[in-house]
């Protein structure tokens, strides 16, 4: 190669290199601007907490106290759902919950954190805060779920006290029900109140909790979706979280909350994902119109949404902007 040609080639290579590095620098700078604005948008959306039904407002308030202090989402959801658990006027969660057909209050709950850790209790009696027992199953045992007598013994070993959870109000409702003893588990049309709560903390981590006394006047030993990871609650810290309320059998049959999170993973918004899960139930289960099911979801970026079968499901949202109660869209 003659020296003139060599000089030309070197010059072109040098010009291209300068051009390329300027371009790379420009692209990087633009990328940083985009990342910065995504970050600031996200920090506006977090922390945030959402939960099912009207009693979610009071529950979110307790959760918000944790989130506002830069606490962890897992601590926020536990603190939040303990409010309706202790409230005798909430007739389908914890203390004051409607009993089964034998007159026994039996409770189901589960909790899940940002690291895929989870804990659950089912058919637990005499303990006011099943969510905190579920938390200790997660934190202090190698297991995910304890049920019945075993769950009670574990709770007592952790310092929980046995209490009578059947309030005079709930006893009266059960005695009235006994007159006809008609087992019609149509929940959420008149009788709703399971609390499912999802939170995104200021660190960007997601967690969820779900707690209930289940279907009123259910068969003894009946367990619904609420303590079952994937059915009544699911959290994937890379994607989002979902919880459910309503006729638990429908969520169990479709592994509803896991389905919602997987739909979000495929790119759906929380509302689209909840709608897709309700549509799956409608498509697979012929009798779905007799029941209520409501899904609530929160994405990793703080976007939330819901969908249900019957009109009437609502949910509470609390963020820096304050608290609000929103009506869910429905398939019927
Ligand atoms: C259950 N999913 O035990 C619960 C009940 C419920 O609002 O959500 N009620 O099936």
UniProtKB/TrEMBL annotation:
**Pfam families, sorted:** Asparaginase_2
Its signal peptide is 1-25
- Entry-linked InterPro entries: Ntn_hydrolases_N, Peptidase_T2
Recorded hits in CDD domains, A to Z, give: Glycosylasparaginase (cd04513)
User: Keywords on this record?
Assistant: Signal
Q: Which domain of life is it from?
A: Bacteria
Protein name (database record): N(4)-(Beta-N-acetylglucosaminyl)-L-asparaginase
Q: Give the originating organism.
A: Pseudoalteromonas neustonica
């Amino acid at each position: 190669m003659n020296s003139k040609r060599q000089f030309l080639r070197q010059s072109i290579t040098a010009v291209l290199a300068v051009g390329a590095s300027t371009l790379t620098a420009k692209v990087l700078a633009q990328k940083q601007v985009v990342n910065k604005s995504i970050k600031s948008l996200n920090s506006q959306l977090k922390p945030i907490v959402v939960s099912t039904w009207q009693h979610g407002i009071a529950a979110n308030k307790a959760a918000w106290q944790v989130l506002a202090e830069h606490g962890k989402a897992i601590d926020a959801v536990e603190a939040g759902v303990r409010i309706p658990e202790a409230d005798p006027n909430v007739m389908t969660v914890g203390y004051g919950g409607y009993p089964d057909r034998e007159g026994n209050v039996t409770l189901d709950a589960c909790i899940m954190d940002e690291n895929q850790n989870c804990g659950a209790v089912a058919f637990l009696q005499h303990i006011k805060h099943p969510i905190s027992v579920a938390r200790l199953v997660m934190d202090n045992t190698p297991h995910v779920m304890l049920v019945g007598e075993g769950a009670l013994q574990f709770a007592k070993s952790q310092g929980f006290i046995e209490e009578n959870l059947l309030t005079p109000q709930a006893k009266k409702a059960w005695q009235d029900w006994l007159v006809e003893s008609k087992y019609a588990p149509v929940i959420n049309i008149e009788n709703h109140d399971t609390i499912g709560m999802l939170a995104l903390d200021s660190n960007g981590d997601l967690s969820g909790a779900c707690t209930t006394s289940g279907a009123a006047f259910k068969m003894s030993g009946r367990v619904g979706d609420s303590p079952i990871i994937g059915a009544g609650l699911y959290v994937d810290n890379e994607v989002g979280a979902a919880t459910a309320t309503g006729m638990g059998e429908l969520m169990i049959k479709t592994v509803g909350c896991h389905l919602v999170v997987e739909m979000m993973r495929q790119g759906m918004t929380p509302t689209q994902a909840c709608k897709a899960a309700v549509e799956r139930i409608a498509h697979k289960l012929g009798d779905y119109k007799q029941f209520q099911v409501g899904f609530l979801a929160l994405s990793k970026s703080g976007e939330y949404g819901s969908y249900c079968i019957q009109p009437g499901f609502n949910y509470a949202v609390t963020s820096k902007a304050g608290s609000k109660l929103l009506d869910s869209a429905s398939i019927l």
